[in-house]
Amino acid sequence: MTLKVYLSGEIHTDWREEIAAGAADLDVKFSAPVTDHAASDDCGVTILGAEASKYWHDHKGAMLNAIRTRRGIEEADVVVVRFGEKYKQWNAAFDAGYASARGKALIVLHSPEHQHALKEVDAAALAVAETPDQVVEILRYVLTGRLPSQNAAAAE
Hints:
- Strands 2-1-3-4-5 form a 5-stranded parallel sheet, sandwiched between helices.
- Helix 1 (15-22) packs parallel to helix 6 and helix 2 crosses helix 3.
- By secondary structure, the chain is of the alpha/beta class.
- It has a single domain (3-33, 75-155), classed as Rossmann fold (3-Layer(aba) Sandwich).
- The protein contains 7 helices and 5 strands, in the order E-H-E-H-H-E-H-E-H-E-H-H.
C-alpha cells in the first residue's frame, strides 16, 4: 500500500529531505507546500497583478497557496506538521487544525521547548515527534508493523 504523506510547516531547515531520505525504502509518496519562500510570498501578485496594500499582496498569495495546501492535505493519508525553532508558524497551526478537522492522521513534529505552546495542537495529533527520524520510524511501523529494533535485526 502506498502511503501518501503531506509534509507541512516550517520551510527554513531540511527536515523534509531528512524524512524522505530515511523513508527511501518505504512505499511512501510525499507532497508539500511550495518551500521557496519568495515564490510563496509573491505568487499572487506575480500571477494576478501587483497590489498597493501589503494586506492584499499577502492575501492573494495566501489564497493561491491554499489551493495547493488544501489539495495536499485532502489527498494525504498522513499529515506531518513541523513547528520550527526560529519563527512562529501560524500557517502550520492552521494546517494541523485543517488536517484534524478533515479526519487525517496527524503527526506533529517539534522540539520539547514548544510542548506547552502547542499543547492543543499536540492533543489533536495521533503522534508527537521530536525528530525527523522518529517520523520515519512511525511511517515504517505503519507500513510494516515492525519496531525499530526489529528493523535493525532484519537488516543484519
